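Appendix B. Raw example, untouched.
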Amino acid sequence: MLSQVAQFAPQFEVELEDASVDLRAMFDSARKYGLPGPDTAFQQVSVRLDLHSSSDPDRVRALVTHAEMGCHAVRSLQNPVPVTMQASLNREPLEM
């Protein structure tokens, strides 16, 4: 997310003085340890984007909206995609 903000700030005429992201995820680890419980996937993810800028708030808002749309990680969490798993052992495929 932060890379998208930095990349598109000039396009939206936003001058950034400082920027940071606080990303937090909630999940239950029970199944990871063989205990009954929900899937170990994230149950909630929150992204806090803290920007410092003297630019017009409407431009900053437009930048953040565009950055969210262009962030591969955020979009993948909002719209889950199939994931495939492959493993190898000693450079030979490991049947899963």
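End of appendix B.
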